[in-house]
Give the backbone structure.
Amino acid sequence: MIHATLHQLKVFEATARHGSFTRAAEELYLTQPTVSIQVKQLSKAVGMPLFEQIGKKLHLTQAGEKLLSTCQEIFNGLEQFEMSIANLKGMKQGQLKLAVITTAKYFVPRLLGPFCKRYPGIDISLKVTNHQQLQKSMAENEDDLYIISQTPSQPDLAVHPFLENPLIVLAPTGHPLARKKNIPIEALNDEPFIMREVGSGTRTAVEELFAKGDVRVKVRLELGSNEAIKQAIAGGLGISVLSQHTIISEGTTGEFAILDVQGFPIERHWYVASLAGKQMSVVAETFLQFLLEESPAMAKRLLPGLGKSADSGEEKVVQMEQRTILKR
Ligand code: PGA
């Protein structure tokens, strides 16, 4: 059995994460020599070097890599243990790591307010990124729960659908097509178009629909943010296809009009997912239940017209069947 202290493992983990003694020292409020001595003692206990210095950068050796994954397992285990004890004491406390696709940032933070009020002992870390980056986080097992709108083929996930996420054609108000009904999709060929970046789930869905309808829009601008696209639309640079959630605050009363184009809205859903083999923490379970229970009512309040074009008059907030799909 290797004689290593928990403190040494923490120092080692921080050094490995930052690739630097100095930055690990800053994070842990220690001096740089203390960090380097702790790592040296740990290497001695292991009997092999844990880092090698190439140029200015520290790299993990093979033994270092193995120790890092062991550390992560130990820390996760301890975190789970802490949460279970808090749960046994009748308190819900601990950290929830949530990673969501860009469109969910308009909705999820609004849900977090009431959640944190109900469970003041739970700290939340929220990461907002596109579909491709989220898949990378899943592969690295970085978070407890993921909000996605396309279920990837890998990794295996436990998936719960919870709200509609329709994609709509957004134009500036006053656009000549804004008053037309049932616009043929080919009409988009003549419009300057603003597209999300490669790796975006929105882009993939749009490209699939355009490929099916043999539509070839003129992409005038490619932007990696829904907000930047909205500003470009408002500035008259073109039209785009975005999630209806992106206009949660403005609706269609201000700068935007939803065009009634055939084939739209593209009907999609949000799913809350966790890695299939992963033991869910008490905190993650608590948030999952809260999300499934509270989100339909909140969506109804925030987006009463979710899923309908500007004046179809028909409300479509679908309360989806709460089921778990094991995606393989
Ligand atoms: P994206 O995902 O940011 O990858 O486009 C958003 C969505 O699919 O709703």
